[in-house]
Design a protein that fits this description.
Number of domains: 3
Strand order of the largest sheet: 3-2-4-1-5
Largest sheet: 5 strands, parallel
Family: Belongs to the methyltransferase superfamily. RsmI family.
Function: Catalyzes the 2'-O-methylation of the ribose of cytidine 1402 (C1402) in 16S rRNA.
Protein name: Ribosomal RNA small subunit methyltransferase I
Keywords: Cytoplasm, Methyltransferase, rRNA processing, S-adenosyl-L-methionine, Transferase
Helix content: 25-40%
Radius of gyration: 23 Å
GO molecular function, one term: rRNA (cytosine-2'-O-)-methyltransferase activity
CATH superfamily of the largest domain: Tetrapyrrole methylase, N-terminal domain
Length: about 300
Amino acid sequence: MDRHAGGEDRAEPVPLSVLAERAAPGLYLVSTPIGAARDITLRALDLMNTADVLAAEDTRTLRHLLSIHGIPLRGRRLLAYHQHNETSGGDTPILAALAGGAVVAYASEAGTPLVSDPGFRLARGAIAQGAQVFAAPGASAVLAALAVSGLPSDRFLFAGFPPATDAARNRWLDGVLGIDATVIAFESPRRVKEFLRNLCEKDGERGIVICRELTKRFEEVLRGTAAELARDLRIEGMKGEVVVLIDRKVAEGTSMEEARKMVAAAMKGGLSMRDAAQAVAEASGLPRRAVYQAALAGGGE
């Protein structure tokens, strides 16, 4: 999640002759696809082809990705580093390789390492012993969901997984609902309905976007208020990887629909949509971006 399992679409192997030369020694945190295998970056392929040591949250997933893109192991070590061995010495051989001046590429099961995935202790350990740590950026379920959500992206909080129990989840919601930012969370598909029920008890009118199976064959994006989505039959029996986004609270006194109408009126007076949204935001206290997006959704009318 960023652990969305790799897709099955097979890409044409990149000729080894066009790949980059060996990278500088250090630990490379390599982002991998959250769905479609072709979402891999050329730099990630370079690193996986030339690294001295390959490490992964799930070595089976990495082997499959290497196979899809035609990258051979050539006798290189493939080490496992995951939540079950990160506190029991799983980083020892990786840190030893770094101490010896190796280029180590570490990949999460899917997405960006350390984003709701193992890797924090490994990166800290590498830094502590003086090794260089580099990011090889790429796919991220967090950013992909934010991009397609239609919610304000000028300020956002990634809040990980909500707690599984009602009491703890309610406390979690109390902590995030007052934040003046779009909140992004991962959730089990089996708990989405309970999550919406808890949210409705606090603010059924809060805007919600649920992204399922991003970049995969059955990708789906559901938008609405918490109350609307809680009644949506598509929530029943939901499967796959789920990202939930919570819109920021609308300022009291002016609804977003009222703000949209105010923008439309200002545009009839000769202002551009952008200038009208800015004026309405300043007058109402609503976020400018949210007002602008509401105006876009309404066609400025």
